C-alpha cells in the first residue's frame, strides 16, 4: 500500500516540483520588474478571483469526488456532464462580472482608477481556469496522473513563455501578467477538452445536480472560511497599510507556497481517490487505522518541507537581491515566511479529520469549524493589523489555524472516533523544534553556501531525529528503506547504461 502511494505521489510531485523550479526562475524577475505596490495589486486581484470562484462554484466538484465511485457507465458520464455544464454557467457569470464591472471593482479595491485593464483580463483568466476544473478532476479520479501532470506542465510552460514575452520584453506590467495567464489557460483548456470528452455526456440531470449540491454546498462555507483564513488579511492590509506592504507580505506567501506546490497539492490530488477507493473495500477498523497513520505521515513529511522552506527562505531572498537585482525592500518578507508556512502545515494536518467527515457524509462539520476559525481571524485582524501590520497578519493566521485543528479533531473524535496517536505527534514536534534551533544557528556570509549548508545539515538531522524517535513503526521504516534501496538500484542501473 505504502509503495503504491509513494509511486503516485511522486508522479504528481515531480510535475509540481518542475513547476516550482520554473516559478522560481520567474520570481526574481517579478521582484525586479514589479515594484512592491504592483506585486501587491496582482496578489489582491488574484484573491478576488479566488473569492468569486468559491461563491459561484457551489462546491459541486466536492460532490463529484464523493459520488464518482458510486456510479458507472452512462450514469457516471451524466454526472460528469452535469458538473461541467454547471461550471460553464458559473464561469460565464463570473467572467462577465469581472469584464463589465472593472471600474466599480477598481474603485472599491484601490479607491482610484488605473487597473481596469488588468481586471478585464482577469475575467478571461477566470473563465478558462474555471472550465479546466472538471477535466483536471476527471484525470485524478480516473487515476490518470500522467495526463494530469502533462496538461498542468503544458499550461504552466505556456504561461511561463508568455510572461517572459509580455513582462520582460513587452514591458506590459500588471496587464501583461494576466494577459499571459488568459492565453495559456485558454490553450490548455482546448487540449484538455479533446482528451476528456470520452468521460462526459452533456446531459443535465436535475436529480444528480441536487445530490452534487447537497454534498457540495457545505464546502462553499468551508472554502469561504479558508479564504478568510488565508487571504482576507491581504485585503485588510491593503486598507490599513497600502499595496506596497501587501506586495512584501505576498512574497512571504509565495515562498511558503512551495509547501503547497511540492507537497500539499500532489497529496490532495492523490488522497481522495485512494482513500475512498480503500474505504469502499475495507472494514471500519482498517479505515480508522489508515486515518491514524495518514495523520502521522502527513505531519512527518509536512514538517520536513516546513523546515526546508523556513530555514532556506532568508538565503534565497538574499540571492534574489544580490544576484538578480531584486528590490531590497523584499528582504522584509523573510520574517513572515516561517509563520505563514507553519499555517500551511497546520491546514495540511487537517486531512485526516476532513476525510473522516466526508466519509460519514458530514462535511458541514468541517465547514462550521472553518467558519469559526475564519471569523476569529478576521475579527482579531481588525485589532492587530493597524498596530503590527504584516507581522500581526501572520501571527493571527497561525492562531486561527491552531484553533481550526483543535476544534476539528475534538469534534470529529465525537462523531467518528479514530484514536489518533498524539504521543507520536508530540515527539515529532520536539524533532522540529530541535532542528529549527540548529538550522537558525548556521548563518554564513555567502548566501548560496549558507543555503546549501542549512538545508543539508537540517534535513539530515531531522530525518535522524524522526527515526530515533520512532515516528514510523518498525515495519514502516523497513518499507521505506526497501523502497529507497530499490530506487537506488534502479538509478544505478540507469546511470550505468548512459
Q: What do you see in this structure?
A:
There is one protein chain. The chain has 498 residues and is mainly α. The chain has a domain of 183 residues. The chain has 18 helices and no strands. Helix 10 packs antiparallel against helix 11 and helix 12 packs antiparallel against helix 17. The longest helix is centred in the C-terminal third of the chain and has 53 residues. The protein is globular and about 60 Å long. About 2% of the residues have low confidence.
Gross geometry: globular
Count of distinct strands? 0
Number of helices, counting only DSSP H or I runs of 4 residues or more: 18
Distance between the termini: 32 Å
Mean pLDDT: 81
Q: Can you write the helix and strand succession as a string?
A: HHHHHHHHHHHHHHHHHH
Strand content: under 5%
Low-confidence stretches: 5-13
Largest beta sheet, briefly? none
Decide which structural class fits the backbone. mainly alpha
Helix content: over 70%
The Rg value, from CA coordinates, equals: 23 Å
Amino acid at each position: 500500500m505504502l509503495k503504491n502511494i509513494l509511486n503516485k505521489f511522486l508522479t504528481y510531485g515531480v510535475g509540481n516540483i518542475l513547476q516550482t523550479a520554473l516559478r522560481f526562475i520567474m520570481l526574481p524577475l517579478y521582484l525586479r520588474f514589479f515594484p512592491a505596490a504592483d506585486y501587491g495589486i496582482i496578489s489582491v486581484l488574484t484573491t478576488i478571483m479566488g473569492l468569486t470562484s468559491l461563491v459561484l462554484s457551489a462546491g459541486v466538484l466536492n460532490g463529484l469526488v464523493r459520488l464518482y465511485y458510486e456510479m458507472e457507465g452512462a450514469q457516471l458520464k451524466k454526472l460528469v456532464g452535469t458538473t461541467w455544464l454547471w461550471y460553464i454557467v458559473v464561469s460565464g457569470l463570473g467572467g462577465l462580472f469581472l469584464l463589465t464591472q472593472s471600474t466599480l471593482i477598481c474603485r472599491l479595491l484601490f479607491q482610484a482608477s488605473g487597473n481596469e485593464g488588468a481586471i478585464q483580463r482577469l475575467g478571461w483568466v477566470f473563465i478558462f481556469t474555471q472550465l479546466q476544473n472538471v477535466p483536471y478532476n476527471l484525470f485524478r479520479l480516473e487515476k490518470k496522473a500522467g495526463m494530469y501532470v502533462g496538461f498542468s506542465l503544458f499550461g504552466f510552460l505556456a504561461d511561463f513563455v508568455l510572461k517572459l514575452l509580455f513582462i520582460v520584453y513587452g514591458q506590459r506590467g500588471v496587464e501583461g501578467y494576466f494577459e499571459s495567464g488568459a492565453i495559456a489557460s485558454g490553450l490548455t483548456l482546448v487540449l484538455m477538452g479533446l482528451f476528456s470528452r470520452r468521460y462526459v455526456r452533456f446531459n443535465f440531470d436535475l436529480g444528480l445536480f441536487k445530490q452534487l449540491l447537497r454534498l457540495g454546498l457545505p464546502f462553499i462555507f468551508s472554502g469561504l472560511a479558508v479564504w478568510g483564513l488565508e487571504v482576507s488579511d491581504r485585503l485588510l492590509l491593503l486598507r490599513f497599510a497600502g499595496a506596497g506592504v501587501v506586495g512584501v507580505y505576498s512574497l512571504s506567501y509565495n515562498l511558503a507556497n512551495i509547501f503547497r506546490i511540492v507537497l500539499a497539492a500532489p497529496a490532495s490530488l492523490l488522497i481522495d481517490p485512494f482513500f475512498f477507493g480503500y474505504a469502499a473495500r475495507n472494514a471500519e477498523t482498517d479505515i480508522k487505522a489508515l486515518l491514524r497513520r495518514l495523520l502521522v505521515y502527513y505531519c512527518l513529511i509536512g514538517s520536513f518541507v516546513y523546515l526546508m522552506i523556513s530555514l532556506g527562505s532568508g538565503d534565497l531572498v538574499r540571492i534574489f537581491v544580490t544576484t538578480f537585482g531584486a528590490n531590497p525592500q523584499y528582504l522584509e518578507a523573510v520574517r513572515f515566511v516561517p509563520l505563514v508556512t507553519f499555517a500551511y502545515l497546520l491546514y495540511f494536518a487537517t486531512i485526516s479529520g476532513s476525510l473522516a467527515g466526508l466519509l460519514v457524509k458530514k462535511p458541514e462539520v468541517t465547514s462550521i469549524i472553518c467558519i469559526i476559525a475564519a471569523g476569529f481571524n478576521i475579527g482579531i485582524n481588525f485589532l492587530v493589523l493597524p498596530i503590527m501590520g504584516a507581522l500581526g497578519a501572520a501571527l493571527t493566521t497561525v492562531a486561527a489555524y491552531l484553533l481550526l485543528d483543535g476544534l476539528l479533531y475534538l469534534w470529529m473524535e465525537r462523531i467518528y472516533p479514530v484514536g489518533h496517536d498524539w504521543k507520536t505527534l508530540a515527539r515529532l514536534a520536539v524533532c522540529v523544534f530541535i532542528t529549527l534551533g540548529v538550522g537558525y544557528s548556521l548563518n554564513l556570509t555567502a548566501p548560496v553556501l549558507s543555503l546549501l549548508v542549512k538545508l543539508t545539515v537540517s534535513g539530515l538531522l531531522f530525518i535522524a531525529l524522526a527515526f530515533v524517535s520512532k515516528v514510523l513503526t518498525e515495519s514502516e521504516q523497513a518499507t521505506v528503506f526497501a523502497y529507497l534501496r530499490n530506487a537506488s538500484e534502479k538509478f544505478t542501473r540507469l546511470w550505468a547504461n548512459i
